[in-house]
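Re: Re: token formats

Sure, here are both.
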Amino acid sequence: MKKFPILYWPRNTKGDEEYRLARKVISNATGVMPRLWAEDLDLGRIFSENPDAAVYYPVFCESTGWWGELLGGDAVVTDKVIISPECQLMVIEAAHHARSRGGTQLLAAEIYPASGFFKKMNSGIATVADMLATDTGTILALFSGKSSASFINVLESTGNSYLGCIGRY
């Protein structure tokens, strides 16, 4: 089943070469020009109005914590498309429609920073992909890995909290 493409673009589109490139890449991949979504991202609303949608979410090189908007939602990252050195598109689908293309998953966790934890995680269980510090002293971290069970075991053995898997690709 083909997914209806929606391009979320939070920046001004006028004169934005990455915007034009993103539209071209999506159109080439899907055969359909994506619908632009420029207002606040509400994935629940998007998926209720367009159940077969695939939202293309741009992550710019200066972005941090982009995945926080997905936590607790009925959405998973199912693919990523690199359009330039400064921007990649994360393909987001409703969790009940998403199909995994491979074994790598994006795993989110709330942790207290500890060097031993990061050494363990980067040793093959999962790799740190993005982090965002909170005002309570914890870090919301995004990891990529193949086994959510191994990831959760390591988290729990170090006394950290697991927030949930937000994607796979």
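Second one below.
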Amino acid sequence: MRFLIRSCAALLLTLSLPLAAAPAPMHAQFLPPDDLTLRDAAPEQQQLLQVTEYSVVVGSQRQSNQQPIPVTSPMLIRLKGKSLNKGATINQVVINFDGESKSLKKPVYDDKSKTLTLNYPMAQYRVVMDLLRNGTVYCQFLSYANGHIWADLHTGAVRSR
């Protein structure tokens, strides 16, 4: 009899709950306002990483088979960490800094290598480094059925002094 009463109570509780919209992604509080309602559905994919280490790479390459010989100096930051959300497979983020292009490439998550690639203008380098040096940093990637993609680096909530 007790079991029947508990079952009925659980069923009534379940039925009384409003049918909620799709669950919000983890760390949704760090997303900007969605004025264009691009994120009105649940994301198809979410990758959330807590950064535990980083390395800065400033390269120099010369492609000797081309004339004139172009010399480039790519700059990137490689982040490693632990994934935080259920189903996440991400284990590293590569941030490329571009000082020349008029537009940036979209964020891309590669399932095979478990790597998220972000592209920022060179002017954001100091901002990114300040984030990494001053506390816990998270990286999130969200992709939606409508083609919208969002990726960011953010700190956790920090109390002001």
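The longest helix spans residues 2-16. The chain has one domain: 43-155.
- S.
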